[in-house]
């Protein structure tokens, strides 16, 4: 289905909003936006945003964000954590963790696959944290499904360690300062 990207708006999902018509082909992701997203928002666990076609009101995609961190416990050893830390923070900055924003969920409607909606979402997230860094955020993280790894690699995300290689999900990061 062709989409005029000028007709796309994105907004925060209201805690009382009821999304009924959304299908991305993954039942877990469908269930989250239809049932769990408002509860997560109300509990202050994550905030979800929807992209919709302003001419039809159709939800074409969504994403959920939460605060995260990259810390020593994400690495198999102290030495691998220290290598990571020195790669990005050569001038000291020896914290036990570094601030990040986590992409908890990201989905595109089956009707709009191949239209670049996922890339648009990633670009929006990155731009918003680069331009409006209210509380300090260096990285974007995601626990990516194995099937979504090529998408995230194409967006510039990197694996945090080799420990989860071949697992169902893999912890990836994007350095916001690289741009």
Automatic annotation (TrEMBL):
The keyword Mitochondrion does not apply. GO terms for molecular function: acyltransferase activity, transferring groups other than amino-acyl groups. Keywords: Acyltransferase, Transferase. It comes from Segatella copri. Residues 102-167 form the N-acetyltransferase domain. It comes from the Bacteria. This is GNAT family N-acetyltransferase.
